[in-house]
Amino acid sequence: MNLRAYRSEIQWTVVVVVLAVLAAIALWPRDHEQRSGPAAAPPPAEQVDPQQRSAAALQPCPSGTGGPAELAGTTVQCQADGKPADLAGAVSGGPTLINLWATWCVPCRTELPALQAYSTEPGAIRVLGVQVDSGPAEGLDLLRALGVHFPNVHDGDNRARAALRAPNVLPVSFVVTASGEVRRIDPPVAFESPHEVRAAVERTLGGQ
């Protein structure tokens, strides 16, 4: 084989290798893009025994249209029936207290019954619990044990937590005003009585 033929063979070999690499890249799975893209779907909801939901006896999740712009498109799982719920719609139509909690959070176990007692008082605004960082089945068991029945949703992928820009502490609560403004209750301390809840809500609403 002369030198010219040898060089030609090497050149064709390089071309074939380059084309093969480009084809492999084109067919490479794009799992990362699918997970991190803006249109990424939420992970499948954990399956919970319907009898467990029935035993918890939670009130149905509220629904509506509109709501705070920062919560638009935030899908959570209603703990009463396991169906997807739109967080913005759930807090639309009137003032709402949003409470973030987890099963492992010790202060939450004191606060949840206080919120339940407040939710049944005359003049109380709507209360919506958002369970984070723990499984829905665990959450249902805890709510049943504590006698908590106000509506609750499960935030399995932290979308609600991110949309609310919640601090890395639990429990933490927010008040959604009648006009759709989201206000955090500060300081984020655990409520121990319905009186404390009412005082914090009135202070945060500021007469609105």
General description of the model:
The chain is α/β, with parallel strands linked by helices and 208 residues long. It has 8 helices and 7 strands. Helix 3 (50-56) packs parallel to helix 6 (136-146) and helix 5 crosses helix 8 (194-205). It is globular, with a radius of gyration of 25 Å. The protein starts with a helix and ends with a helix. The model is unreliable at 14-43 (pLDDT under 50). It is found in: Cell envelope. InterPro entries: AhpC/TSA (IPR000866), Thioredoxin-like_sf (IPR036249), Thioredoxin_CS (IPR017937), Thioredoxin_domain (IPR013766), Thioredoxin_ResA/DsbE_sf (IPR050553). Residues 55-206 form the Thioredoxin domain.
Key attributes of the depicted protein:
208 residues; 41% helix; alpha/beta; 8 helices; single chain
